[in-house]
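DNA phosphorothioation system sulfurtransferase DndC
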Amino acid sequence: MIGFSGGKDSTMLLQVVWRALLKIPDGTRNRPIYVVCNDTLVENPKIVSFINRTLERVQKAAAEQSLPITVHRTTPRLEDTFWVNLLGRGYPAPNNSFRWCTERLKINPTTRFIQEKISEKGEAIILLGTRSQESQTRARSMKRHSMKTGRLRKHLLPNAFVFAPLQDITTNEVWQYLMQIDAPWGGKHKELQTLYRNANTDGDCPLVIDETTPSCGQSRFGCWVCTVVARDKSMEGLVVNGDDWMEPLMEFRDVLINTRNDRAYREMRRRTDSPFKEDDPNTWGPYTPESRAKFLTMLLRAQREIQLSQGEDMQLISHQELVAIQLTWYRDGIFNYKVADIYNQINEQQIDMSKHEEKFKREEQLLREVCADNPDDFNLIQELLTLQKNKSLMKVKRNLKDELERHIERHLAKTKRSEESIHA
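Structure:
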């Protein structure tokens, strides 16, 4: 498996492997080679466009040259996407203390693909374009996880090993190689060089396969919504050098950063009723319904503005994500804001989600009828369902039984106090 991010390092890696394969006689190229590219669905749109064109050429050229290379894109599951979590469930924008995005958007999708292929083949060697010169942290990580052979390091998954052929290559050597040797899948690397020059960057996000893989730095290509860094220098560079259509993306990202720790944007209680501290935003609750609706409005306006200048196929959020967000709002008891209403106010092409609303209204009405004699039970059941759903979605089912029992005990205690007060 070759981790391909579209950057200079992974491009050199793929090219070196490609040229090595061409030296092997056609009849003996029996081992399948997978070019794995992870798409978080919130990557820089300009970089995504460039990567897609490159992968199309790679797949076509591999077939023409009889190479056992196939391209595979990994993406997060719908319930794990950035927008379903931030706009749907109200997760606060990620930061260094609560970086919930890396595992959901990067590690899990690629891990599922690796596990699938190991199940089929028995083992896998994952080639990454990581280099020691990229940073001291990366160099220490590579050294710490390397095996005695100096070539492979064990992956967290059984029967998986990681190899970094370029670990001792310098940045100058990477560019020298790419500028002197054309891509074996066709074309030169001038567009890639121009991207780096315009973005004022010399780094790129590697394929993240586990928690030991270094994440992106401040000047690397990556997710345009990244709020872990204070500034996205690569996007700033692209805007300054002519891609001013991305300004709405920068503005939206800045809003997420500036409002993350604003108490007015967050719920007063956490989903699990766990304690929170007024001076610690990481212990606060999710975004309020008003905040989620506001952010969705801003995102759709940014998308529409970009579509008018770049074409209708430029999407920041998919229709499937919009539906998932609406369903999540219904599950959270949010009926004052409708995704379809927000979308239709901004776009000429209208969408209709009334069937989903009718379904949840019927469920809610049925539950209210069942609990007609005990209205408080309706709220209790809604809370229990929400608690169970959140535990399932977060894949943290530990202590679920205890938390359900605590909710029921608090409800019974509250009911008893109310009855005693009435009798008194």
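Strands lie at 2-3, 33-38, 69-74, 124-127, 152-154, 160-163, 203-204, 220-221.
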